[in-house]
UniProtKB/TrEMBL annotation:
Residues 275-344 form the PAS domain. It is an enzyme of class 2 (transferase). Its EC number is 2.7.13.3. CDD domains: HAMP, HisKA, PAS. It is found in: Membrane. This is histidine kinase. InterPro entries: HAMP_dom, HATPase_C_sf, HATPase_dom, His_kinase_dom, HisK_dim/P_dom, HisK_dim/P_sf, PAS, PAS-assoc_C. Residues 218-270 form the HAMP domain. Residues 404-628 form the Histidine kinase domain. SMART domains: HAMP, HATPase_c, HisKA, PAS.
Length: 640
């Protein structure tokens, strides 16, 4: 198998061998030995130097404490020569650079160097004239205690100690003992020891690296090459190849794992071939149309797609997608669907008729390149059945309201006829008598005719609401005044509500919603009738059915229908919108009302939610999208 192009230089020059395990491991160990040696050296040097500083500082502190007591005793007893000898004896230490005893005026009383005797401190040792030295001497004088420190560069230990210069003298006659100890030679010796220790550790690691290198080269090299060769042949497609390594070490375990992997790959390839055959059979025999397209061009169509579109399979391959769709749906087929959500698209059959499909679209790789697959299901007949079910549910709702509507019409008809008879009788009586009507009679006749006119208007409004609810319109959507729809539905449902509860309207300031007025009327009339039927008769004053509207945000409006009825058990809430599910007694409900309501809302781009508590009532919330201001409502047919 040829190496990748980007590795060709390493391959031809042989430098790739440096990346092999038998060479790389010793190199890594060698690099680790060097890094470990450097790290150990730096750490040991720092630790040893710190130990030197601490040791010398402690030694100087002890020496100064001893000298402080000795010198003060000799000075009190007047033994000046012994004081000078005591200080001079400090010069025997090879690491002590200088030792000085200063009087209160800063002159040298005793020193490790005879040439400095009697000189001012700044001439004998110029470092004592520095501000830092003066500040430390003043601080030691204030505390009357010694001060021993390591200087900033770590090369010296400097100590100051206040000394009482003699007996019976004023307290301000305080001198100083100054010692300066050199750390350079001590640190150099410790550094040399640290270097020898780090070198021994590094050599030991280098020896281990060499031994491991030989082990990897001779003991494992051939087995690694055998495993490498088997891996390359397996990658080249020879699925029968096995490494065949034995042993209980890690490489033997790796060889057995490689053979198991090769066996699994072989089995997986065989299973993949069987799966591909099964998948192709599934695609070919599925009743749903499967269309694969890329860049608006059809690449694959299964037999169900051929039946859906009426074209031959060879004719479909290579055709533009827009030729197979009705105007307005060309771009919707290629748009990815939301997970679990299908959309309706109108296909163009070869015969010219329109086919309604429920389509899910998503992206997949096809022939090694990105493509889009659309799975379509013919729902033309199902849509027709749904329309019939909606019409049936609408008629069921009208049948439920028939008695109440008849009662609503009977009242205005009664007093219209009564007032008209009164007016006719008055006019006939006076006309037959040949007398003109008096002013009071004219007022009574006028009042009767006006009341008859009001009754006629009331009957016309009831008939208009019925016609608005029962008529079949096209499926065009447009801006709808939701308050007008709710008022119309409330009028039709008044006979169902008034004996059970009080109707309460709480309308907010909302824009028009995007929908179909007739469908929305069917939706809210169904919800109002259900709300009324959930409340037992007999206590209309304490129960209520509440209609509420409000804006959720700039894009949505919510309409709530709330009742104080018996409520819905929690186990029934999940099944509430399923077809033919009802909690009403047998013969009272079909179980289609809420299912159709759910379909109406989702078809118009909205959603419906329900919450309920047993014994306290139920609330249905319908969320509808706001209509764009530029959209004009569809023209309504004129009433006869």
């Amino acid at each position: 198998m040829n190496p990748p192009r980007r590795q060709s230089w390493l391959w031809h020059t042989g430098w790739y061998r440096l990346l092999s395990l038998r060479v790389l491991v010793p190199l890594l160990l060698l690099a680790y030995a060097c890094a470990f040696g450097i790290y150990t050296l730096r750490r040991d040097v720092a630790v040893r130097e710190q130990q030197v500083e601490e040791h010398v500082r402690g030694d100087v502190t002890l020496r100064m404490t001893h000298l402080q007591g000795t010198l003060e005793y000799l000075l009190r007893t007047g033994q000046s020569e012994a004081v000078r000898e005591e200080v001079a004896s400090l010069g025997s230490s090879p690491d002590l650079r200088v030792g000085l005893l200063l009087d209160e005026h800063g002159n040298v009383l005793a020193s490790t160097r005879l040439a400095q005797f009697g000189k001012p401190a700044k001439e004998a040792w110029p470092e004592l004239a520095l501000p830092e030295a003066l500040a430390r001497m003043e601080a030691a004088r204030q505390r009357m205690s010694g001060d021993v420190r390591v200087n900033e560069d770590g090369t010296q230990v400097v100590g100051y100690a206040p000394i009482q210069l003699g007996p019976g003298l004023p307290e301000e006659r305080v001198g100083f003992l100054y010692l300066q100890h050199d750390l350079t030679q001590l640190k150099a010796a410790q550094r040399h020891r640290a270097e020898r220790s780090a070198l021994r550790s590094s050599l030991l690691l280098v020896l281990i690296a060499g031994i491991l290198g030989l082990f990897f080269h001779f003991a494992l090299g051939r087995r690694v090459q055998r495993l490498e060769s088997a891996a390359r042949r397996l990658a080249g497609g020879e699925l029968h190849v096995r490494a065949g390594l034995r042993g209980v070490d890690e490489l033997g375990t790796l060889g057995r794992a490689f053979d198991e992997m090769a066996e699994r790959i072989s089995n997986d390839q065989e299973a993949l071939r069987r799966s591909e055959a099964s998948f192709r059979t599934l695609i070919e025999r599925t009743p749903d149309a499967v269309l694969v397209h890329r860049d608006q061009t059809l690449l694959f169509a299964n037999p169900a797609a051929v039946a859906l579109l009426g074209h031959e399979r060879e004719e479909l391959r290579g055709r533009k997608v827009e030729e197979l769709l009705m105007p307005g749906d060309q771009e919707r087929l290629t748009e990815p669907s939301q997970p679990g959500v299908a959309r309706e698209i109108h296909f163009r059959h070869r015969g010219g008729q329109q086919v309604l499909g429920e389509v899910v679209t998503f992206s997949i790789p096809f022939d090694g390149q990105p493509a889009v697959v659309s799975i379509a299901r013919d729902i033309t007949e199902r849509k027709q059945v749904q329309e019939k079910l909606r019409a049936t549910d609408r008629m069921v709702s009208l049948g439920t309201l028939a008695a109440g509507v008849a009662h609503e019409l009977n009242n205005p008809i009664s007093y219209v006829l009564s007032n008209l008879r009164f007016a006719v009788d008055e006019l006939s009586e006076e006309t037959e008598a040949g007398r003109p009507l008096s002013l009071d009679q004219l007022k009574e006749v006028h009042q009767a005719l006006r009341e008859a006119l009001e009754g006629g208007e009331r009957m016309r409004n009831i008939v208009r609401d019925l016609r608005s609810f029962s008529r079949r319109e096209d499926e065009r959507f447009g801006p709808v005044d939701i308050h007008a729809v709710l008022d119309s539905c409330a009028s039709l449902a008044r006979s169902e509500i008034r004996h059970r509860a009080q109707l309460v309207k709480e309308y907010g300031e909302i824009p028009r919603v995007l929908g179909n007025e007739s469908r929305l009327g069917q939706l809210f009339l169904n919800l109002l009738v259900n709300a009324a039927q959930a409340i037992p008769e007999g206590d209309a004053k304490t129960n209520h059915v509440r209609l509420t509207t409000a804006s959720v945000d700039e894009a949505w409006v919510v309409i709530s229908v709330q009742d104080t009825g018996v409520g819905i058990p929690p186990e029934n809430l999940q099944r509430l919108f399923k077809p033919f599910f009802t909690t009403k007694p047998v013969g009272v409900g079909t179980g289609l009302g809420l299912s159709i309501c759910h379909g109406i809302v989702t078809a118009m781009g909205g959603r419906i939610e329900v919450s309920s508590e047993v014994g306290k009532g139920t609330t249905f919330r319908v969320f509808m999208p706001v209509a764009e201001k530029s959209v004009q409502p569809a023209a309504e047919p004129k009433s006869a």
